[in-house]
Amino acid sequence: MVTDSSAAPTDLLLNGLVIKPGQSVLTRLVISRLPSGTVIDIPVHVFRSTEPGPTVLLMAGMHGDEVNGIETIRRMIRRNLLHPLRGTVIAIPILNIYGFLNFSREVPDGKDVNRSFPGNPRGSLASRVAHRFMREIMPLIDYGIDFHTGGAARANISQVRCLLHQDEETDALAAAFAAPFTLHASLRPGSLRETAMQEGRRIIVYETGESLRLDEAGIEMAIAGTFRVLHHLGMVENAPPAAAASVVCMRSTWLRARYAGLFRSDVHLGDYIEKGQVYGSVADPYGENSVRLESPVTGYIIGLNHMPVVNQGDALVHVGRTDLSPSRVDLAAPYDEKPMKPLEVEESDEDEEPADGH
């Protein structure tokens, strides 16, 4: 979507308020009430320039336990960094207030807001949150950055996720952000990205760290990347240069535990591993057996499970791949289960993300 920069800025209507060019406003979208009667509302910051330009959404806390994005937007607001030279910035530090209060990914009914778009005003709680967003926020924006974090003890290296090489504007946003890694990610049904694309809006996802833990380096990268996007859109005068070119991964593979036990990783986020390289081990807790883990693919470690106790099927490492040719992990039928033996090689035949993928 290209905003006509020659047109005069117009009034913006949000939550019953008329927000004029040049104004900065904090408004609160009332969603519902807790069983105690306490009102649950979503604070929304709006920063408008007197000059025409695009409207950019910065949003975090879609999953309430993902605090890195919340802290990223909080710092930009606190440092008074979101007043654009042109256009409008809408900043929502926490969308899922319920999850934030309960240290949870979901809302109290157990549903994921990011699988509930476009929502329903008479649907589940997650669906109602999504519907209110679609009614009040989506019609106003041109572009957006949705901040996320790895979940359930899984940490993500700083990365942008988006649909690559299918839309020039999305590609340009990802290139401008210039995260250490850029991952091609298909649109998921019911997600904000999918719904925004259908509405003609472009949203990229930024991931860093793990849930309920602050990732200081990833937060500062998020702020710098956000300013590069705003600079690309002509909304700020300067932006810090990227430290290095982004590594683009057009596909990725999750390596999963074939045996339950204690997982020990021999790799770190950002490491490059070759096919056949040992990346860790799974051992039984009684000291009788240990299974060596060898990677069936070559690529970069972009996600890592920090939980030492794993069950069969748990995601262990996420490998971002720059190759385009299929590998054994993509083509082979599932392996037959065999008894655990000392130093046995373990491989995975699954490519899909765990349930907390964004």
TrEMBL record:
GO molecular function: hydrolase activity, acting on carbon-nitrogen (but not peptide) bonds, in linear amides; hydrolase activity, acting on ester bonds; metal ion binding
Region Disordered: start-end pairs: 328-358
Cofactor: Zn(2+)
Record-annotated Succinylglutamate desuccinylase/Aspartoacylase catalytic domain positions: 52-233
InterPro entries, per the entry: AstE_AspA_cat, N-alpha-Ac-DABA-like, N-alpha-Ac-DABA_deacetylase
Signal peptide as annotated in the record: none
Record key words, sorted: Hydrolase, Metal-binding, Zinc
Listed Acidic residues bias regions: 345-358
Biased composition (Basic and acidic residues): 335-344
UniProt KW Transcription regulation keyword: no
Gene3D superfamilies per the UniProt record, alphabetical: Zn peptidases
The keyword Metal-binding belongs to this UniProt entry's keyword annotation: yes
Protein known as: Succinylglutamate desuccinylase/aspartoacylase family protein
